Structure formats: structure tokens, C-alpha cells
């Protein structure tokens, strides 16, 4: 791998210098690995750093991930009105953190689930890079992908009935 900024500034303007650097690299590989690694000097190709084949890049979508911590819910009972409540699934507030100083090989997640009073009301599924949660009451659904892989065999989860917060802790692969 070559630094792309250096390659664009140094190698692309001068095809003679590019040919020289490639030839020296090919000779170095031949000297290091012997006669079976001898490569042809005239049939080399400079590859571009593409993660797809063809001319068009495949479409991709960027997930929205929560970057805020859990905020306390403030309710004013004097303003309550009796409106019918819709039973739509909503995304709960959550916080995921990795403490780089104290324990860099561990990740912690906290999910605020108001209205959930028991651990049995929660269905939690952990994948190597995914947390999926759904409450049996049908109020909350969370499906997030993590930028790192977690060790699911060492994962722990516990629920605080008083604060209605699900805690998840796991080591990082």
C-alpha cells in the first residue's frame, strides 16, 4: 500500500520515475524470494484503490447512529390529556461507549426503556457487530450495527428495574 497523496504528487506526474520505482520493487522481490518470484518488468499494472468492479460504484446507504447520551425524561402530569396511544415501535434512547483509557478491550451499552419493568419483557440478540433489541410489549425496537466486532460469548446483560435501563457489556475481538 502506498500513500495516495504521495503517489499523486510524485508518481503520477513522472512516468519515468514511476517505471524506475516499480522496476526496483520487482527486482527486490526477485532477490528476496528467489527465481520463482521473478516478475516480468514490462507487464505490470498500477491498481486503483477501488472496492468494486466496473465503472459505476454500487449504491450505499449510511446508517444514522445516535451520538447523544441518555437524556432524562421529564414529564409534567398536569399537561396530560387522554389521547389514544398508538402502538408503533420506536427507537429507544441509548448510549454506546468504549473507554480507551480504563479498559480499551471492552464496550458498554446502555438502553433506556421506559415502561419496561422486567428483564423477561426484553428480547436481546447480539451478533459480532450488531445489537438487536425488541420489547415484548412492542413499544421499542433497536437494530444497530457497530463499527467493531464484539465477543458475544463473553457478553453480559442486566436490567435495572428502578431506572428502566438495560446494561450490556462485552469484550472486543
Spell out the key features of this protein.
2 helices; 16% helix; four-stranded antiparallel β-sheet; three-stranded antiparallel β-sheet; single chain; 173 residues; alpha+beta
Coarse morphology: elongated
User: How many strands, what sense, and barrel or not for the largest sheet?
Assistant: 4 strands, antiparallel
Decide which structural class fits the backbone.
alpha+beta
Stretches where pLDDT is under 50 for at least 5 consecutive residues are none
Helix content: 10-25%
How many β-strands, per DSSP?
7
Q: What percentage of amino acids are in beta strands? A: 15-25%
Distance between the termini: 25 Å
Concise account of the structure shown:
The chain has helices at residues 4-11, 15-33; strands at residues 93-97, 106-112, 122-126, 130-135, 141-145, 156-160, 165-171. It has 173 residues and is α+β, with helices and mostly antiparallel strands.
Summarize the topology.
Blueprint: H1 4-11, H2 15-33, E1 93-97, E2 106-112, E3 122-126, E4 130-135, E5 141-145, E6 156-160, E7 165-171
Antiparallel strand pairs: 1-2, 2-7, 3-4, 4-5, 6-7
Structure description:
- The structure is a single chain.
- The chain has 173 residues and is an alpha+beta fold.
- The protein has 2 helices and 7 strands; from the N terminus they run H-H-E-E-E-E-E-E-E.
- It has helices at residues 4-11, 15-33, and strands at residues 93-97, 106-112, 122-126, 130-135, 141-145, 156-160, 165-171.
- The radius of gyration is 27 Å and the shape is elongated.
Amino acid at each position: 500500500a502506498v500513500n495516495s497523496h504521495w503517489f499523486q504528487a510524485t508518481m503520477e506526474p513522472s512516468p519515468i520515475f514511476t517505471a524506475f520505482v516499480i522496476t526496483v520493487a520487482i527486482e527486490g522481490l526477485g532477490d528476496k524470494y528467489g527465481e520463482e518470484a521473478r516478475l516480468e518488468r514490462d507487464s505490470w499494472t498500477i491498481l486503483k484503490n477501488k472496492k468494486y468492479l466496473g465503472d459505476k460504484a454500487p449504491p450505499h446507504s449510511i446508517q444514522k447512529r445516535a451520538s447523544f447520551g441518555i437524556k432524562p425524561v421529564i414529564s409534567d402530569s398536569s399537561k396530560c390529556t387522554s389521547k389514544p396511544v398508538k402502538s408503533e415501535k420506536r427507537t429507544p434512547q441509548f448510549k454506546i461507549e468504549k473507554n480507551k483509557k480504563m479498559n480499551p478491550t471492552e464496550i458498554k451499552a446502555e438502553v433506556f426503556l421506559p415502561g419496561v419493568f422486567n428483564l423477561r419483557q426484553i428480547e436481546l440478540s447480539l451478533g459480532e457487530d450488531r445489537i438487536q433489541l425488541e420489547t415484548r410489549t412492542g413499544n421499542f425496537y433497536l437494530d444497530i450495527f457497530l463499527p467493531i466486532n464484539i465477543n458475544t460469548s463473553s457478553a453480559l446483560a442486566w436490567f435495572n428495574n428502578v431506572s428502566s435501563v438495560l446494561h450490556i457489556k462485552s469484550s472486543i475481538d
